[in-house]
Structure formats: C-alpha cells, structure tokens
Design goal:
Blueprint: H1 3-10, H2 13-21, H3 40-46, H4 50-58, H5 74-81, H6 84-91, H7 108-114, H8 118-125
Keywords: ANK repeat, Repeat
ANK repeats: 36-59, 70-90, 104-125
Length: 139
Amino acid sequence: NTLLHAACEEGYLRIVSLLETNPRNAGINLNAPNRNGNTPLHLAFLNERFRLVKWLVSHERVDVNLQNNDGNTLLHLASEKGDLEIVKLLSNQDGINLTKPNNHQNYPLHLASQNGHINIVRWLLTQESVKAELGDADN
C-alpha cells in the first residue's frame, strides 16, 4: 500500500486532501490500485470511512466504476453490505455503471438480493438501466 492507501484505510481525509493538492504530488493517482486491486475508494469503504468515501465519490478525478481483483466496484461492495446511502450516492454519479458484473458474473442487484437487502433491491430496480432479468453465473 502507498501512503494514499494507508490514509484512506484510516479515514484521514485531511491527509488525502493534502496529498491531492500538494504541488509536489501533482498528478497523484487517486485511482491507484494496491496489490489486491483495491483503490483508495474501495479501501475507504471497506474500512467504514464514510466521510472519506463521500469526498472521493464527489471528486472529479475518481473513477467510481473501477473494479478490484475480484471484479467488484464500490457499488458491488455497498450493495452486498447493504449500504443504501452509498448505493444512492453512486446511482446519482455521472457515468456510473449500475449493471457491470464482477468476476463471478454477479451484478450489484444480485449481491443485494443474495444478502437480503430489499431496500437496495427496491432502489436499484427504480434505476432505468437495471433490469430484473439480468442473469448471474448460474442464470
């Protein structure tokens, strides 16, 4: 992990902001994956650093559609965990892909359903691009 990854794991928003704005770090990659393919955004969410997650999601240089080594985007993780607030936040982002499968051919809708998160299933089904007919690896 880089310094940026460590700061995101611990939720140090001020340090992340400093790294991003410091001229000596011009061009710091806010999307850089670690060896597990987790980006700073993945790490902030996995460590429940929700203030930092919201900051990163709103940042123009952060790609919310990046997948980790398992093929999971932040939307997959939030759908699986049952975090409706983050799912809604992501759904409102320009360019969000609500129907990208992970490496197991599971869509965010499947992960929410498999884990009993009816509120997320209900929300995702209100989104135009999400169809209940999406098949998983087992169809």
